[in-house]
Amino acid sequence: MAYVISDACTKCGTCVETCPVEAISEGDPIYVIDADLCIDCGQCADACSAEAISPA
């Protein structure tokens, strides 16, 4: 189960830098997580100051 990013995303980029498998990319209007690449490590959720990332 991949993580997802909610509308609370502020596009700060912290999650992109944190993801060890580069599963996060810039979307419009928020970042998106590629479910096929996501390894469910949760590092992005831990790093998100807006608390916009959660398990799907």
Describe the protein:
By secondary structure, this protein is an alpha+beta fold. It has one domain (3-55): Alpha-Beta Plaits (2-Layer Sandwich), CATH 3.30.70.20. The chain is 18% helix and 18% strand. The chain is built from two helices and four strands; from the N terminus they run E-H-E-E-H-E. The protein has helices spanning 14-18, 43-47; strands at 3-5, 24-25, 32-33, 53-55. The strands form two sheets. The chain has a two-stranded antiparallel ribbon. Strand 2 (24-25) and strand 3 (32-33) form a beta hairpin. The N and C termini lie close together (6 Å).
> Numbering strands along the chain, what is their spatial order in the largest sheet?
1-4
Tally of discrete structural domains: 1
Instruction: Name the shape in a single word.
Output: globular
Helicity level, as a percent range?
10-25%
CATH topology: Alpha-Beta Plaits
Order of helices and strands: EHEEHE
Structural class call reads alpha+beta
- What's the Cα radius of gyration? 10 Å
How many H/I helical runs?
A: 2
Estimate the mean pLDDT confidence. 97
Please identify the top-level CATH class. Alpha Beta
Beta-strand content bin: 15-25%
Task: Draw up the topology in text.
Blueprint: E1 3-5, H1 14-18, E2 24-25, E3 32-33, H2 43-47, E4 53-55
Antiparallel strand pairs: 1-4, 2-3
Please supply descriptive tags for the structure shown above.
56 residues; alpha+beta; Alpha-Beta Plaits; two-stranded antiparallel sheet; two-stranded antiparallel ribbon; 2 helices; 4 strands
